């Protein structure tokens, strides 16, 4: 298992981490397999979505905020119940196919670390599983 650190700068953020994951894969020299990305946090998530238009990330954040407003009738005393709910909605892991030593992602796809309760120092765990 490999890990790297990310630093988020605002309360909500979609941070493109594709390059960091690709660099780890390149170092591993694995040609075929599965890349598992896991976020060990309860108020963050990981997703794959469009990288070309930054408004897509902003719209995802806005759309999630409409679904799960910051202030609701929540019981969680820490005051960040919305962030916990968003983390569970989006999920904390992604599995990406590795072929010819690269991640199989669509032209417009990137891997995004989703911050729902920043700014914070966060971690991303990556497990590269060769299948050759
Ligand atoms: Zn909490």
What does this structure look like?
This protein is of the alpha+beta class. It has a single domain, classed as Jelly Rolls. The protein is about 25% helix and about 35% strand. The chain has three helices and eight strands; from the N terminus they run ββαββααββββ. The strands form two sheets. The chain has a five-stranded antiparallel β-sheet with strand order 1-8-3-5-6, with helices on one face. It has a three-stranded antiparallel β-sheet with strand order 2-7-4. A hairpin with a 2-residue loop joins strand 5 and strand 6. The longest helix has 14 residues. The protein starts with a strand and ends with a strand. Zinc ion binds next to loops.
Question: Secondary-structure blueprint of this entry?
Answer:
Elements: E1 2-7, E2 13-16, H1 18-28, E3 33-38, E4 44-50, H2 54-67, H3 81-90, E5 93-99, E6 102-103, E7 109-115, E8 121-130
Antiparallel strand pairs: 1-8, 2-7, 3-5, 3-8, 4-7, 5-6
The structure holds zinc ion.
Zinc ion (ZN) is lined by residues 76, 78, 80, 84.
């Amino acid at each position: 298992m490999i890990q790297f650190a990310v630093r988020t700068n605002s309360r909500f953020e979609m941070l493109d981490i594709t390059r960091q994951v690709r660099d780890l894969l390149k170092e591993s020299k694995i040609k075929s397999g599965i890349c598992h990305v896991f976020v060990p946090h309860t108020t963050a998530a990981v997703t794959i979505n469009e990288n070309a238009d930054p408004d897509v990330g902003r719209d995802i954040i806005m759309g999630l905020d409409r679904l799960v407003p910051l202030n609701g009738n929540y019981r969680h005393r820490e005051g960040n119940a919305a962030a916990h709910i968003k983390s569970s909605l989006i999920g904390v892991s992604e599995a990406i196919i590795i072929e010819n030593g690269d991640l199989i992602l669509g032209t417009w796809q990137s891997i995004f670390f989703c911050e729902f309760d920043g700014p914070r120092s966060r971690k991303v765990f990556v497990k590269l599983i060769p299948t050759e």
